[in-house]
Amino acid sequence: MKGLILFILMIYTVDSLAQTADKPNYDESKVPEYTLPELLKTNDGVKVNNKQVWEAIRRPELIREFEDNIYGQMPQGFDRITYSFINDNKSAMEGKARLKEVLIKVFNKDQKLEINLILFIPNRAKRPSPAFLLINNRGKENTDPTRINKSDFWPAELLIDSGYAIAAFNVDELAPDQKDTYMNGVLRLYPEQLAANNGMRAIGAWAWGASRVMDYLLTDPDIDGKQIAVVGHSRGGKASLWAAAEDQRFALCITNCSGNTGAALARRQFGERIKTINTKFPYWFSPNYKKFNDQEALLPVDQHMLISMIAPRPVYATNASDDLWADPKGTYLSLQNAEPAYVLYGIKPNLPANSPAINEPIVNASLAYHIREGKHDLTLFDWINFIKFANYNFKKRAF
Ligand code: GTR
Protein backbone atom coordinates (compact mmCIF):
# COMPACT_ATOMS: atom_id res chain seq x y z
CA MET A 1 0.00 0.00 0.00
CA LYS A 2 2.75 2.42 1.07
CA GLY A 3 4.65 1.59 -2.13
CA LEU A 4 1.57 2.33 -4.24
CA ILE A 5 1.01 5.73 -2.59
CA LEU A 6 4.68 6.58 -3.12
CA PHE A 7 4.41 5.54 -6.76
CA ILE A 8 1.31 7.72 -7.35
CA LEU A 9 3.02 10.62 -5.58
CA MET A 10 6.08 10.20 -7.82
CA ILE A 11 4.00 10.22 -11.01
CA TYR A 12 2.18 13.31 -9.80
CA THR A 13 5.45 15.13 -9.04
CA VAL A 14 7.07 14.25 -12.36
CA ASP A 15 3.91 15.36 -14.16
CA SER A 16 3.67 18.72 -12.39
CA LEU A 17 7.38 19.38 -12.99
CA ALA A 18 6.86 18.76 -16.69
CA GLN A 19 3.99 21.22 -16.69
CA THR A 20 6.06 23.92 -15.02
CA ALA A 21 8.85 23.44 -17.55
CA ASP A 22 6.42 24.12 -20.40
CA LYS A 23 4.64 27.09 -18.83
CA PRO A 24 5.86 30.44 -20.13
CA ASN A 25 7.80 32.49 -17.63
CA TYR A 26 6.61 36.07 -17.13
CA ASP A 27 8.55 36.67 -13.94
CA GLU A 28 11.73 38.77 -14.34
CA SER A 29 13.21 37.22 -11.20
CA LYS A 30 13.06 33.79 -12.89
CA VAL A 31 15.04 34.83 -15.96
CA PRO A 32 18.17 32.66 -15.80
CA GLU A 33 21.68 34.08 -15.66
CA TYR A 34 23.02 34.11 -19.19
CA THR A 35 26.01 35.27 -21.20
CA LEU A 36 25.43 36.36 -24.78
CA PRO A 37 27.81 34.97 -27.39
CA GLU A 38 30.41 37.57 -28.25
CA LEU A 39 29.48 39.70 -31.23
CA LEU A 40 32.85 41.18 -32.06
CA LYS A 41 35.06 38.12 -31.87
CA THR A 42 35.54 35.71 -34.78
CA ASN A 43 35.19 31.95 -34.32
CA ASP A 44 39.02 31.86 -34.33
CA GLY A 45 39.09 34.27 -31.41
CA VAL A 46 40.17 37.36 -33.37
CA LYS A 47 38.83 40.65 -32.02
CA VAL A 48 36.76 42.55 -34.58
CA ASN A 49 37.55 46.24 -34.29
CA ASN A 50 36.86 47.55 -37.74
CA LYS A 51 34.23 47.15 -40.41
CA GLN A 52 36.66 45.45 -42.81
CA VAL A 53 37.14 42.44 -40.51
CA TRP A 54 33.43 42.50 -39.70
CA GLU A 55 32.44 42.38 -43.37
CA ALA A 56 35.12 39.95 -44.51
CA ILE A 57 35.00 37.47 -41.62
CA ARG A 58 32.57 37.98 -38.77
CA ARG A 59 29.38 38.90 -40.62
CA PRO A 60 29.65 35.95 -43.07
CA GLU A 61 30.35 33.65 -40.11
CA LEU A 62 27.19 34.83 -38.41
CA ILE A 63 25.10 34.47 -41.56
CA ARG A 64 26.28 30.88 -41.78
CA GLU A 65 25.46 30.20 -38.09
CA PHE A 66 21.93 31.56 -38.51
CA GLU A 67 21.44 29.55 -41.71
CA ASP A 68 22.82 26.33 -40.25
CA ASN A 69 21.13 26.48 -36.88
CA ILE A 70 17.95 28.51 -37.25
CA TYR A 71 16.41 29.74 -40.51
CA GLY A 72 18.02 27.33 -42.97
CA GLN A 73 19.88 28.06 -46.18
CA MET A 74 18.79 30.82 -48.52
CA PRO A 75 19.06 29.46 -52.09
CA GLN A 76 20.16 32.25 -54.41
CA GLY A 77 20.02 30.83 -57.91
CA PHE A 78 17.05 30.20 -60.20
CA ASP A 79 16.66 29.75 -63.94
CA ARG A 80 14.52 32.75 -64.79
CA ILE A 81 12.35 35.52 -63.38
CA THR A 82 9.64 37.42 -65.31
CA TYR A 83 7.36 40.32 -64.47
CA SER A 84 4.00 41.05 -66.04
CA PHE A 85 1.40 43.69 -65.24
CA ILE A 86 -2.02 42.41 -64.28
CA ASN A 87 -3.18 45.96 -63.72
CA ASP A 88 -1.63 49.39 -64.16
CA ASN A 89 -3.93 52.20 -63.09
CA LYS A 90 -2.40 55.66 -63.14
CA SER A 91 -5.30 57.12 -61.26
CA ALA A 92 -6.01 54.79 -58.35
CA MET A 93 -6.99 55.91 -54.85
CA GLU A 94 -9.04 58.77 -56.28
CA GLY A 95 -6.12 59.97 -58.34
CA LYS A 96 -3.62 60.00 -55.46
CA ALA A 97 -1.65 56.99 -56.59
CA ARG A 98 -0.62 54.76 -59.43
CA LEU A 99 -1.51 51.13 -58.78
CA LYS A 100 0.59 48.38 -60.27
CA GLU A 101 -0.38 44.77 -59.79
CA VAL A 102 2.62 42.78 -60.86
CA LEU A 103 2.76 39.05 -61.38
CA ILE A 104 6.28 37.86 -60.60
CA LYS A 105 7.10 34.40 -61.94
CA VAL A 106 10.21 32.54 -60.85
CA PHE A 107 11.29 29.41 -62.71
CA ASN A 108 13.69 26.75 -61.51
CA LYS A 109 14.11 23.05 -62.40
CA ASP A 110 10.88 22.93 -64.46
CA GLN A 111 8.94 24.37 -61.55
CA LYS A 112 7.25 27.75 -61.41
CA LEU A 113 6.35 30.01 -58.51
CA GLU A 114 4.02 33.01 -58.75
CA ILE A 115 4.04 36.05 -56.49
CA ASN A 116 1.27 38.65 -56.78
CA LEU A 117 2.70 42.01 -55.85
CA ILE A 118 0.47 44.96 -55.08
CA LEU A 119 2.15 48.33 -55.35
CA PHE A 120 0.82 51.87 -54.93
CA ILE A 121 3.06 54.81 -55.88
CA PRO A 122 2.23 58.38 -54.83
CA ASN A 123 1.29 60.71 -57.71
CA ARG A 124 1.84 63.94 -55.87
CA ALA A 125 5.31 63.23 -54.56
CA LYS A 126 8.68 63.37 -56.22
CA ARG A 127 9.58 60.24 -58.24
CA PRO A 128 11.30 57.86 -57.83
CA SER A 129 9.61 57.14 -54.51
CA PRO A 130 11.01 55.51 -51.39
CA ALA A 131 8.94 52.41 -50.58
CA PHE A 132 7.71 50.17 -47.79
CA LEU A 133 7.22 46.48 -48.53
CA LEU A 134 5.02 44.49 -46.14
CA ILE A 135 5.52 40.74 -45.82
CA ASN A 136 1.81 40.10 -45.29
CA ASN A 137 1.01 37.19 -43.01
CA ARG A 138 -2.60 38.18 -42.30
CA GLY A 139 -4.50 37.45 -45.51
CA LYS A 140 -5.35 39.28 -48.71
CA GLU A 141 -8.23 41.27 -47.16
CA ASN A 142 -5.61 43.53 -45.54
CA THR A 143 -4.01 44.56 -48.82
CA ASP A 144 -7.06 45.12 -51.03
CA PRO A 145 -5.93 46.78 -54.30
CA THR A 146 -9.45 48.15 -54.91
CA ARG A 147 -9.38 49.96 -51.52
CA ILE A 148 -12.97 48.95 -50.87
CA ASN A 149 -11.61 47.21 -47.78
CA LYS A 150 -9.20 49.29 -45.75
CA SER A 151 -7.12 48.06 -42.85
CA ASP A 152 -4.73 49.58 -40.33
CA PHE A 153 -2.52 46.55 -40.88
CA TRP A 154 -1.55 48.05 -44.26
CA PRO A 155 -2.80 51.66 -44.25
CA ALA A 156 -1.93 52.36 -47.88
CA GLU A 157 -3.56 55.83 -47.97
CA LEU A 158 -1.47 57.03 -45.03
CA LEU A 159 1.74 55.97 -46.73
CA ILE A 160 0.74 57.53 -50.05
CA ASP A 161 -0.18 60.81 -48.30
CA SER A 162 3.26 60.73 -46.65
CA GLY A 163 5.04 60.43 -49.99
CA TYR A 164 5.91 56.72 -49.82
CA ALA A 165 5.14 53.90 -52.20
CA ILE A 166 3.57 50.96 -50.42
CA ALA A 167 3.82 47.33 -51.52
CA ALA A 168 2.76 43.94 -50.20
CA PHE A 169 2.77 40.26 -51.00
CA ASN A 170 1.08 37.37 -49.30
CA VAL A 171 3.23 34.81 -47.46
CA ASP A 172 0.99 31.90 -48.44
CA GLU A 173 2.16 32.21 -52.04
CA LEU A 174 5.73 31.52 -50.90
CA ALA A 175 5.02 28.89 -48.25
CA PRO A 176 1.49 28.24 -47.01
CA ASP A 177 1.43 28.87 -43.25
CA GLN A 178 0.44 25.28 -42.44
CA LYS A 179 2.48 22.33 -41.36
CA ASP A 180 1.16 19.97 -44.05
CA THR A 181 1.31 22.32 -47.03
CA TYR A 182 4.20 24.75 -46.40
CA MET A 183 6.31 22.92 -49.02
CA ASN A 184 3.90 23.91 -51.82
CA GLY A 185 5.67 27.13 -52.74
CA VAL A 186 9.33 28.14 -52.96
CA LEU A 187 10.36 24.68 -51.78
CA ARG A 188 9.06 23.14 -55.01
CA LEU A 189 11.87 25.08 -56.71
CA TYR A 190 14.44 23.80 -54.23
CA PRO A 191 13.33 20.27 -53.22
CA GLU A 192 16.82 19.45 -51.93
CA GLN A 193 16.21 21.92 -49.09
CA LEU A 194 13.53 19.65 -47.66
CA ALA A 195 16.04 16.86 -47.15
CA ALA A 196 18.67 19.06 -45.47
CA ASN A 197 18.87 19.55 -41.72
CA ASN A 198 19.89 23.11 -42.42
CA GLY A 199 17.30 23.44 -45.16
CA MET A 200 15.00 26.38 -45.78
CA ARG A 201 11.53 26.25 -44.26
CA ALA A 202 8.54 28.65 -44.23
CA ILE A 203 10.10 31.76 -42.63
CA GLY A 204 13.10 31.46 -44.97
CA ALA A 205 10.73 31.10 -47.94
CA TRP A 206 8.88 34.28 -46.98
CA ALA A 207 12.17 36.18 -46.70
CA TRP A 208 13.22 34.77 -50.08
CA GLY A 209 9.95 36.14 -51.50
CA ALA A 210 10.81 39.62 -50.22
CA SER A 211 14.06 39.41 -52.18
CA ARG A 212 12.25 38.44 -55.40
CA VAL A 213 9.98 41.45 -54.93
CA MET A 214 13.14 43.51 -54.44
CA ASP A 215 14.41 42.11 -57.78
CA TYR A 216 11.29 43.55 -59.40
CA LEU A 217 11.34 46.87 -57.54
CA LEU A 218 14.87 47.53 -58.78
CA THR A 219 13.54 47.43 -62.34
CA ASP A 220 10.69 49.87 -61.64
CA PRO A 221 11.67 53.44 -62.59
CA ASP A 222 9.05 54.85 -60.20
CA ILE A 223 10.81 53.32 -57.18
CA ASP A 224 14.02 54.48 -55.52
CA GLY A 225 15.88 51.19 -55.22
CA LYS A 226 18.15 52.64 -52.54
CA GLN A 227 15.25 53.47 -50.24
CA ILE A 228 13.22 50.32 -49.77
CA ALA A 229 12.11 49.30 -46.29
CA VAL A 230 11.00 45.77 -45.46
CA VAL A 231 8.29 45.47 -42.80
CA GLY A 232 6.77 42.49 -41.03
CA HIS A 233 4.52 41.81 -38.10
CA SER A 234 5.11 38.94 -35.69
CA ARG A 235 5.94 35.84 -37.79
CA GLY A 236 6.25 38.30 -40.70
CA GLY A 237 8.60 40.36 -38.51
CA LYS A 238 10.84 37.34 -38.02
CA ALA A 239 10.94 37.10 -41.82
CA SER A 240 11.60 40.84 -42.30
CA LEU A 241 14.68 40.63 -40.07
CA TRP A 242 15.94 37.55 -41.88
CA ALA A 243 15.27 39.15 -45.28
CA ALA A 244 17.21 42.30 -44.36
CA ALA A 245 20.08 40.29 -42.86
CA GLU A 246 20.40 38.10 -45.97
CA ASP A 247 19.69 40.77 -48.57
CA GLN A 248 21.67 43.97 -48.15
CA ARG A 249 19.63 45.74 -50.81
CA PHE A 250 16.96 46.46 -48.18
CA ALA A 251 17.89 49.89 -46.85
CA LEU A 252 15.87 49.67 -43.67
CA CYS A 253 14.12 46.99 -41.60
CA ILE A 254 11.03 47.09 -39.40
CA THR A 255 10.16 44.18 -37.14
CA ASN A 256 6.85 44.61 -35.33
CA CYS A 257 6.15 42.46 -32.25
CA SER A 258 8.40 39.72 -33.67
CA GLY A 259 9.32 38.12 -30.32
CA ASN A 260 10.87 34.69 -30.19
CA THR A 261 13.25 33.90 -33.08
CA GLY A 262 12.58 37.48 -34.17
CA ALA A 263 13.97 40.46 -32.31
CA ALA A 264 13.85 39.04 -28.75
CA LEU A 265 16.83 37.41 -27.05
CA ALA A 266 16.40 33.64 -26.78
CA ARG A 267 18.55 33.21 -23.69
CA ARG A 268 16.18 35.14 -21.46
CA GLN A 269 13.66 32.32 -21.84
CA PHE A 270 10.87 34.82 -21.19
CA GLY A 271 7.44 34.31 -22.77
CA GLU A 272 7.60 32.16 -25.89
CA ARG A 273 10.57 29.80 -26.03
CA ILE A 274 12.32 27.86 -28.77
CA LYS A 275 10.69 24.59 -27.75
CA THR A 276 7.22 26.15 -27.83
CA ILE A 277 7.70 27.70 -31.26
CA ASN A 278 9.27 24.54 -32.69
CA THR A 279 6.42 22.43 -31.36
CA LYS A 280 3.60 24.65 -32.57
CA PHE A 281 5.26 25.66 -35.84
CA PRO A 282 7.66 22.81 -36.73
CA TYR A 283 7.75 24.01 -40.35
CA TRP A 284 8.95 27.59 -39.72
CA PHE A 285 12.63 26.91 -39.05
CA SER A 286 15.24 24.33 -40.08
CA PRO A 287 15.25 20.85 -38.52
CA ASN A 288 18.56 21.76 -36.82
CA TYR A 289 16.77 24.38 -34.73
CA LYS A 290 14.99 21.61 -32.78
CA LYS A 291 18.34 20.83 -31.13
CA PHE A 292 17.92 23.98 -29.10
CA ASN A 293 14.59 23.06 -27.56
CA ASP A 294 15.18 23.77 -23.83
CA GLN A 295 18.85 24.39 -24.74
CA GLU A 296 18.99 28.11 -25.48
CA ALA A 297 22.44 28.44 -23.91
CA LEU A 298 23.89 26.09 -26.53
CA LEU A 299 22.98 28.32 -29.46
CA PRO A 300 26.14 29.72 -31.06
CA VAL A 301 24.25 32.97 -31.68
CA ASP A 302 21.47 35.02 -30.12
CA GLN A 303 18.99 37.38 -31.75
CA HIS A 304 21.00 40.59 -31.17
CA MET A 305 23.36 39.15 -33.79
CA LEU A 306 20.55 38.98 -36.32
CA ILE A 307 20.03 42.74 -35.90
CA SER A 308 23.80 43.30 -36.06
CA MET A 309 23.96 41.68 -39.47
CA ILE A 310 21.71 44.46 -40.76
CA ALA A 311 24.14 47.20 -39.65
CA PRO A 312 24.73 49.94 -40.68
CA ARG A 313 21.18 49.93 -42.07
CA PRO A 314 18.55 51.17 -39.62
CA VAL A 315 16.32 48.75 -37.71
CA TYR A 316 13.08 49.54 -35.85
CA ALA A 317 11.75 46.95 -33.39
CA THR A 318 8.47 47.27 -31.51
CA ASN A 319 6.38 45.66 -28.82
CA ALA A 320 2.89 46.00 -27.35
CA SER A 321 2.23 46.35 -23.63
CA ASP A 322 -0.18 43.39 -23.46
CA ASP A 323 2.13 41.14 -25.46
CA LEU A 324 4.57 39.72 -22.90
CA TRP A 325 4.70 36.53 -24.99
CA ALA A 326 7.01 38.49 -27.36
CA ASP A 327 9.31 39.62 -24.47
CA PRO A 328 9.52 43.43 -24.75
CA LYS A 329 12.51 43.67 -22.42
CA GLY A 330 14.37 40.98 -24.37
CA THR A 331 13.64 42.87 -27.60
CA TYR A 332 15.06 46.12 -26.27
CA LEU A 333 18.13 44.32 -24.92
CA SER A 334 18.64 42.74 -28.30
CA LEU A 335 18.73 46.16 -29.98
CA GLN A 336 21.12 47.48 -27.34
CA ASN A 337 23.44 44.52 -27.77
CA ALA A 338 23.52 45.09 -31.53
CA GLU A 339 24.93 48.60 -31.08
CA PRO A 340 28.63 47.61 -31.33
CA ALA A 341 28.12 46.54 -34.96
CA TYR A 342 26.83 50.05 -35.77
CA VAL A 343 29.75 51.63 -33.95
CA LEU A 344 32.08 49.87 -36.42
CA TYR A 345 30.48 52.11 -39.06
CA GLY A 346 30.91 55.26 -37.00
CA ILE A 347 27.23 55.28 -35.97
CA LYS A 348 26.39 55.61 -32.30
CA PRO A 349 22.78 54.51 -31.88
CA ASN A 350 22.78 55.75 -28.25
CA LEU A 351 19.73 53.90 -27.06
CA PRO A 352 18.85 54.99 -23.52
CA ALA A 353 19.89 52.56 -20.78
CA ASN A 354 16.26 51.83 -19.97
CA SER A 355 13.52 51.00 -22.41
CA PRO A 356 11.27 54.03 -23.11
CA ALA A 357 7.86 54.38 -21.48
CA ILE A 358 4.73 53.04 -23.17
CA ASN A 359 3.74 55.13 -26.24
CA GLU A 360 7.01 57.10 -26.24
CA PRO A 361 8.75 55.99 -29.43
CA ILE A 362 12.43 56.52 -30.18
CA VAL A 363 12.33 57.20 -33.93
CA ASN A 364 15.11 59.60 -34.82
CA ALA A 365 17.75 56.92 -34.60
CA SER A 366 19.49 54.08 -36.43
CA LEU A 367 18.17 51.65 -33.86
CA ALA A 368 14.59 52.65 -33.10
CA TYR A 369 12.13 51.20 -30.62
CA HIS A 370 8.70 51.59 -29.14
CA ILE A 371 6.36 49.77 -26.87
CA ARG A 372 2.80 50.66 -27.71
CA GLU A 373 -0.17 50.36 -25.43
CA GLY A 374 -2.41 47.45 -26.33
CA LYS A 375 -2.33 44.04 -27.88
CA HIS A 376 -0.22 42.05 -30.31
CA ASP A 377 -0.99 43.72 -33.65
CA LEU A 378 0.23 46.09 -36.34
CA THR A 379 -1.64 49.37 -35.94
CA LEU A 380 -1.85 52.94 -37.20
CA PHE A 381 0.25 54.08 -34.24
CA ASP A 382 3.01 51.72 -35.38
CA TRP A 383 2.88 52.89 -39.01
CA ILE A 384 2.87 56.60 -38.11
CA ASN A 385 6.12 56.05 -36.26
CA PHE A 386 7.63 53.90 -39.01
CA ILE A 387 7.08 56.83 -41.36
CA LYS A 388 8.85 59.21 -38.96
CA PHE A 389 11.72 56.75 -38.68
CA ALA A 390 12.02 56.45 -42.47
CA ASN A 391 11.78 60.25 -42.85
CA TYR A 392 14.67 60.61 -40.45
CA ASN A 393 16.85 57.91 -41.96
CA PHE A 394 16.09 58.33 -45.66
CA LYS A 395 16.13 62.08 -45.82
CA LYS A 396 18.89 62.88 -43.40
CA ARG A 397 21.51 60.32 -44.24
CA ALA A 398 22.88 59.12 -47.53
CA PHE A 399 23.64 55.43 -47.92
C1 GTR B 1 2.18 33.09 -32.32
C2 GTR B 1 3.62 32.70 -32.25
C3 GTR B 1 4.47 33.93 -32.29
C4 GTR B 1 4.04 34.89 -33.36
C5 GTR B 1 2.55 34.97 -33.54
C6 GTR B 1 2.05 35.69 -34.80
O1 GTR B 1 1.31 32.03 -32.19
O2 GTR B 1 3.84 31.98 -31.09
O3 GTR B 1 5.84 33.59 -32.39
O4 GTR B 1 4.66 34.60 -34.54
O5 GTR B 1 1.96 33.72 -33.54
O6 GTR B 1 2.60 35.53 -35.89
O7 GTR B 1 1.08 36.45 -34.68
- Ligand types: beta-D-galactopyranuronic acid
Q: Helical segment tally?
A: 11
Low-confidence region ranges: 11-20
Largest sheet: number of strands, sense, barrel closure: 9 strands, mixed
Q: Strand sequence of the main sheet, in spatial order? A: 1-2-3-5-4-6-7-8-9
Could you say how many structural domains there are in total? 1
Query: Alpha-carbon distance between the termini?
Result: 77 Å
Q: Determine the CATH topology.
A: Rossmann fold
Class by SSE composition: alpha/beta
GO molecular function: carboxylic ester hydrolase activity
Pfam families: GCE_fung
Domain 4-O-methyl-glucuronoyl methylesterase-like: 105-344
Protein name: Putative acetyl xylan esterase
Describe this protein's structure:
With 399 residues, this protein is of the alpha/beta class. The protein has one domain (40-394): Rossmann fold, CATH 3.40.50. Helix content is 33%, strand content 20%. The chain has 11 helices and 9 strands. It has helices at 2-22, 51-71, 156-161, 186-189, 192-195, 202-217, 235-246, 274-280, 303-308, 328-343, 380-396, and strands at 80-92, 97-108, 111-122, 129-136, 165-170, 223-233, 252-256, 315-320, 367-372. The protein has a 9-stranded mixed β-sheet, sandwiched between helices. Strand 6 (223-233), helix 7 and strand 7 form a beta-alpha-beta unit. Helix 6 crosses helix 7 (235-246). The longest helix is centred in the first third of the chain and has 21 residues, at 2-22. The chain is globular and about 60 Å long. Mean pLDDT is 95; it is low at 11-20. Bound molecules: beta-D-galactopyranuronic acid. Residues 234-235, 259-260, 272, 277 line the site of beta-D-galactopyranuronic acid. Residues 105-344 form the 4-O-methyl-glucuronoyl methylesterase-like domain. This is Putative acetyl xylan esterase. InterPro entries: AB_hydrolase_fold, GCE-like_dom.
